[in-house]
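ERR on first pass: missing label on line 2. Operator R.T. fixed the label and resubmitted. Corrected input:
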Amino acid sequence: MDQKNHRYCVIMCGGIGSRFWPYSRAALPKQFIDFLGTGRTLLQMSYDRISGIIPKQNILIMTNERYAGLVAEQLPEISRDQILLEPARRNTAPCIAWAAWHIAARDPEASMIVIPSDHVITRENLFVESVLQGFDFVESHNALLTFGIEPTRPETGYGYIQIGERVSENMNKVKTFTEKPDLELAKVFIASGEFFWNSGIFLWRTSTIIEALRKHVSDLDSVFAAAPSSVYTDPAAERAFISEAYPGCVSISIDYSVMEKADNVYVETVSFGWNDLGTWSALYDLSPKNSETNVTQNCNVLAYNSRRNIFAIRGEKLIVVDGLEDYIVADADGVLLICPKAREQKIKNMVNDAKLKFGDKYE
Amino acid sequence: MDQKNHRYCVIMCGGIGSRFWPYSRAALPKQFIDFLGTGRTLLQMSYDRISGIIPKQNILIMTNERYAGLVAEQLPEISRDQILLEPARRNTAPCIAWAAWHIAARDPEASMIVIPSDHVITRENLFVESVLQGFDFVESHNALLTFGIEPTRPETGYGYIQIGERVSENMNKVKTFTEKPDLELAKVFIASGEFFWNSGIFLWRTSTIIEALRKHVSDLDSVFAAAPSSVYTDPAAERAFISEAYPGCVSISIDYSVMEKADNVYVETVSFGWNDLGTWSALYDLSPKNSETNVTQNCNVLAYNSRRNIFAIRGEKLIVVDGLEDYIVADADGVLLICPKAREQKIKNMVNDAKLKFGDKYE
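pass 2 clean. output:
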């Protein structure tokens, strides 16, 4: 069997994107939205990007039960059995563990790449090259590999990876993972040449990650190892098992539970364009501006004395605005948000306040 | 015949209220909106107020052809023949002239009050007393009477009337009509005790206003005097005549063409509560504020660091706002306006810009 047929992709697609509320909603999160106005949603773009490298039948979509319909609708070429539905939100480690056991039951020699569904990637030819190099590496090393993006600015919104010992071209051991730095520290990181943005993209053999989970997150290992491997190849049996077992999983990230603890963690330094599209400001920075430095999504804007705003509307609408600078104006499904970009980190609190005061429909 | 049966009311209802755009639209102007959230529109409130004083069959609604359906729907107790439809916008003098000829043809002894349909009046018992006193006055004097509202603040958004020679209690000759003053001058006006707000409410005998029009606006007189009085009592004939003649009328206000020129102009000084609801700021001032001094119309608002704003939404919506002070936020029928209250006089220009750039549907 061609090595390529042992390669799998896991697209993580269960988030609710509340930092883009109200444009991204619990009922229609960010990854299901055509955020860049290209005609394809972020999920579809993620799928398009990987489906040239990975056999289509080897692509899995991990998402919340609630989004089964959205995934099926947006990716009609994916079969129902390739969509794994989480009955509860449990962060990335349980999701990745389940995917690994599911794949291992089908193909003990499998390797897998884990990618988020809601990031923006440009220079996709470099992405393809990096992914192929990464697979070659993990197939010949007992490695937990992550992508470190070559930083282009002292970004304070990302985590960084410090590279250690060089293994081969673009391949290094990881020295440290860091939290989001302040601006001063970010500048020091950039100047050093040793720090790369933490992309949240992972590659490994399924046997390698299962071994790492066994060693570092035994709680999770005991959940998934409890089922015979035949369960993972029988969709009905798997659904029954997961609906019982998954809600009991510890809610923890793969970064915290495995990557920061294991000693076989490597980073492939890559130089494709990447943006985690984590905030309105990130979207603003990424988007083309008009002559008044405003960014518009799906709306006509008539702006007076207004600069550096981002306007995002679901549904046809004209916005007429006077005297607004550095604001987010977002309107969708019965909610209008007007908020300074500088206070966007408060949006999650606003969502909670709105839910408490006016009900769940505003989530 | 009881004198009361010779009394008529003309409600002027043809404006488009563009200063409240986009909440007030060419397709649904201000007077047809329940602006105060009472369950009755401004037109309905105007009708309710006057229908206790004037026989219902003596109430006429003057409006644009476009609003025939809205008037009929909002005032089902009015017969079709009491709604006079203007085939073109021609300001107040042609509208009042037509109404006067229409009434005079039915009742040569008629007197009439002309009221706008989009003002707010409180202390309605005082309004009723003032109207009755006004009718008594014009029925015994050859007078063009207007109401001067006792000012309660140095308002710069209104025209003022300076009173002259006293005739009887609350009744004076008019000395001058003034344009909107600046704040300094408005303070002087108030301190003098001689200046009253120009209400745009008029009372006279139809014979008195027809005579004044003949003297001061002969162009208009010749239009309406050209038809035999039988035309004004035959709805089909009147419609045919008006559709031919009305568009040729000079477009001019009754204030400028008659009231500022005639020498039999009187003012009744009145003390009911009155607001011409001419601007968003006027609506803001009039409306109850929440604890953050924001005003909301038809919407839930979650406000952070936001004060002295007015939020008006058509259709159920939640507004979440941070860091906005002294703004108008209005959303209706596909348009969202965000504009500082201090620049509200620019809204008319914005409507024009929107029409030019994006089409008539935004009027």
